[in-house]
Amino acid sequence: MAGHSKWANIKHRKGRQDAKRGKLFAKLIRAIEAAARAGGGDSAANPTLATAIQKAKDASVPKDNIERAVARGTGDLEGVSYEDVWYEGYASGGVAVYVHVLTDNRNRAASDVRAVFNKFNGSLGEPGSVGYLFEQKAYILATGDEDVVMLGALEGGADDVVESGDQWEVIASPGDLAAVRAALEEAGVTIDQADVTQLASTSVPVDAATAPKVLRLVDALEDLDDVQEVFANFDIPDDVLADVG
Predict the structure, then answer these.
(1) pLDDT by residue (tens digit) across 106-140?
(2) Rounded to an integer, what distance in angstroms lies between the CA atom of residue 47 and that of residue 239?
């Protein structure tokens, strides 16, 4: 897909999640609880928690909700223990799908995920079948002057900056997300999205006939309460994406 960023699916996923705001809030709160339970309630010493809290703030989750989620995670308030699970499979057209789940019932989550793959012409794979195609990275979508973005990204320790229309995609190591974001903001760059995500090393071109099948599978997976995020390596042209959307 000439002229298109291979991370374009991330922006598409964010837009569709924003349309389901109530469900998104619940997923963000669950991520905070799990991070606090795993690494403690001090965000300064727990980068996973810091990222989860910042992501919730970016989505306008109320401060009280965030604080209660941390308290439940640390045990100061009664809460639920969530298990971190990954599922791997394929959508139509050979698109790799990597599903992150936080669940208090692994059997239920596995059954629900499998049912969605079966219903929407996908196939659930074995562990390791597609995970190797994805790499955890810090991803920042920014708006600003090219020189300013480049300088801020360099100051923050970013690995790469990719032009994406009138925006810039800044890629960094997961642990550098906060530093890169701070450097960009200090330089006056507008941050449109910042997250630790899974970036695919290769992408699969998807045509107009296949795109609806792929997106229906991804959307159905994201609608599951236990599913936190869905990553896929589809590469859909903007005009096709607009028609499907």
Answers:
(1) 999 999 999 999 999 999 999 999 999 999 999 99
(2) 38
pTM of the model: 0.84
The phi-psi region of residue 239 (left if phi > 0; otherwise alpha if psi is between -120 and 50; otherwise beta) is alpha
Q: Cα 89 vs. chain centroid, distance in angstroms?
A: 17
The span from the CA of 105 to the CA of 67, in Å, is 25
pLDDT-based confidence at residue 1 (cuts at 50, 70, 90): very low
Residues 195 and 211 in one domain: no
Please tell me the distance from the alpha carbon of residue 245 to that of residue 231, in angstroms, as a whole number.
Answer: 18
By CB atoms closer than 10 A (0-12, 13-18, 19+), residue 60 is exposed
Question: Domain residues for 165?
Answer: 133-200
Tokens at 223, concatenated: 């609608």
**What distance, in Å, lies between the first and last C-alpha atoms of the chain?**
18
User: What average pLDDT does range 57-66 have in this prediction?
Assistant: 92
Q: Which helix (H) or strand (E) holds 23?
A: helix 21-39
Residue 222 is assigned to a structural domain of this protein: yes
> What does 63-84 look like in DSSP terms, one character per residue?
HHHHHHHHHHHHTSS-----EE
**Do 235 and 8 contact (CB within 8 A), yes or no?**
yes
Residues 6 or more apart whose CB falls under 8 angstroms from that of 74 comprise 36, 37, 40, 41
**Domain stops at, among 41, 74, 107:** 74
Q: Which residues contact 34 (CB under 8 A, 6 or more apart)?
A: 73, 82, 84, 102
The span from the CA of 83 to the CA of 228, in Å, is 12
Q: Cα(163)–Cα(4) distance, rounded to whole angstroms?
A: 9
